[in-house]
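Reminder to self: tokens first, then the designed residues, so the page reads top to bottom the way the pipeline ran.
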């Protein structure tokens, strides 16, 4: 890297970190259902209890829904004093800076162009995809950092520029990405495919390296799954069955990336057409450059990552229930796409004449995207600074019903349709009311196939427990997306409840004597 590029990259990184820190300062990092899993596990780890789920009034279960890395990192921040909820913001800012630096280095590695590298880094910095995943208490920040660092070191090894140390360190970083998210399997799959397809050694040696990389990158997560089996009797909460949800999934797969080019206010048909044209252009140019052997190994690994990540999400949608194809899920695809597009367009820029139509078009596209990204980033930042994100937003932190829950004793059973919200905001042991339908079978048209057969028994068990221990049901009006729970009206009809305290945003109930 040149000194001038290092200076500008560091300046862009500091600007990005300052911007994210500024907009998240009033309300902290955003909180969601997944956030509650990371935070409760970090808290239990700090107490020396290992990785545990949200506590119930009479116990808690081992955490198996998520790999442990995010909780370990939050607990590491907690060693210095802050609760993981407060420490998560500092952790996100650290990884935001690290990911911006890494993205700039990766783009410079494939382009060797100061201008193109800074443009790619700037688009990454101002992208809502990257800003959003670093503003929430999610595992994407370390997942992206370790995953792409692992692919970078593997690319250096495959180019013959580094020795075996880089091969094994690449495997170690990929293992950390796998320990951050189960979908880290896509990084591992891209690495294994890259060794098999891009390595210049004999087939037997490539197979040996594939085997070794698989061992290094998968052993830690395998040990974690063994721990889950021993502690909870199962490796994960994932369920296997065939339900073809591809119609909805593929529509989302096209909808979100189209917003990377044009704002969501633009009609979907126009956005989809623009995305198709742009992808066709990149595919054509990339194919010509690949035939000339001008595409770098890192860009080829990025393409393999895109294919493996999308393929794995489609596979799990078909066999494990619908997976969300949103900006969060597609964040690795965005960075991989940025690497490939930067090299493809940067090489095309170099090969074009100074005043050619191609250079004019590329310049206009970059300037238009930069302007659009900046406008959207500032609009998003203004909203986040005013209102906050998720359960860390103003409306949740000032919730009347949550304030009522905080006054309840901690030694009574509390059931709710907002397990995560009550735990994060009131820090109380809490349980979910029984679900009447299987959330994984959201698109199954037959209600009988969606229904839980033991739902009536679960309602009766909850009623007995509430009556025997003077427990409380907390029904939150603002939890409108969990259709698989009974409505408040149905719950009151099926369980003998009476109002304990009513608020604008929810109600506290107790069982009638």
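Designed residues (513 positions):
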């Amino acid at each position: 890297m040149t000194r001038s590029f290092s200076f500008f990259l560091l300046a862009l990184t500091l600007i990005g970190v300052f911007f994210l820190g500024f907009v998240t300062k009033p309300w902290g990092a955003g909180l969601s259902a997944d956030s509650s899993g990371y935070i409760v596990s970090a808290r239990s780890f700090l107490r020396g209890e290992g990785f545990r789920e949200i506590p119930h009034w009479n116990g808690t279960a081992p955490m198996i829904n998520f790999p442990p890395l995010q909780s370990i990192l939050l607990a590491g921040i907690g060693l210095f004093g802050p609760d993981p909820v407060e420490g998560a913001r500092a952790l996100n800012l650290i990884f935001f800076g690290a990911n911006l630096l890494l993205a700039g280095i990766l783009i410079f590695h494939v382009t060797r162009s100061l201008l193109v590298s800074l443009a790619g880094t700037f688009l990454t910095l101002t992208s809502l995809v990257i800003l959003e995943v670093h503003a929430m208490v999610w595992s994407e920040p370390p997942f992206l950092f370790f995953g792409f660092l692992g692919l970078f070191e593997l690319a250096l090894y495959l180019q013959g520029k580094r020795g075996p140390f880089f091969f094994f360190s690449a495997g170690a970083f990929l293992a950390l990405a796998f320990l951050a998210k189960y979908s880290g399997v896509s990084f591992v799959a891209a690495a294994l495919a890259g060794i098999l397809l891009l390595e210049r050694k004999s087939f037997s040696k490539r197979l040996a390296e594939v085997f070794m990389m698989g061992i290094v990158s998968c052993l830690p997560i395998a040990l974690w799954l063994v721990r889950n089996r021993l502690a909870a009797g199962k490796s994960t909460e994932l369920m296997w069955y065939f339900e073809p949800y591809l119609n909805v999934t593929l529509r989302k797969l096209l909808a979100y990336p189209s917003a990377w080019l044009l704002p969501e206010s633009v009609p979907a048909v126009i956005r989809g057409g623009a995305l198709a044209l742009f992808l066709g252009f990149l595919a054509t140019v990339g194919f010509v450059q690949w035939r000339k052997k001008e595409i770098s190994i890192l860009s080829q690994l990025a393409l393999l990552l895109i294919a493996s990540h999308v393929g794995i999400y489609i596979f799990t949608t078909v066999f494990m229930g619908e997976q969300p194809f949103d900006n969060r899920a597609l964040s690795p695809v965005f960075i991989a796409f940025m690497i490939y597009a930067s090299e493809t367009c940067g090489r095309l820029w170099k090969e074009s004449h100074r005043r050619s139509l191609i250079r004019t078009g590329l310049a206009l596209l970059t300037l238009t995207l930069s302007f659009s990204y900046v406008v959207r980033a500032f609009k998003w930042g203004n909203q986040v600074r005013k209102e906050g994100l998720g359960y860390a937003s103003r409306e949740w932190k000032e919730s009347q019903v949550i304030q009522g829950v905080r006054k309840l004793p901690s030694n009574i059973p509390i059931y709710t349709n907002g397990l995560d919200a009550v735990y994060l905001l009131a820090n109380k042991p809490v349980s979910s009311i029984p679900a009447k339908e299987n959330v994984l079978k959201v698109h199954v048209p037959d209600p009988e196939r969606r229904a839980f057969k033991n739902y009536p028994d679960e309602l009766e068990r909850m009623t007995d427990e509430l009556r025997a221990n003077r427990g409380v049901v907390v029904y939150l009006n603002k939890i409108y997306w969990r259709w698989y729970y009974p409505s408040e009206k149905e719950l009151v009809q099926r369980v003998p409840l009476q109002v304990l305290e009513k608020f604008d945003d929810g109600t506290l109930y107790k069982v009638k004597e």
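The mean pLDDT is 90.
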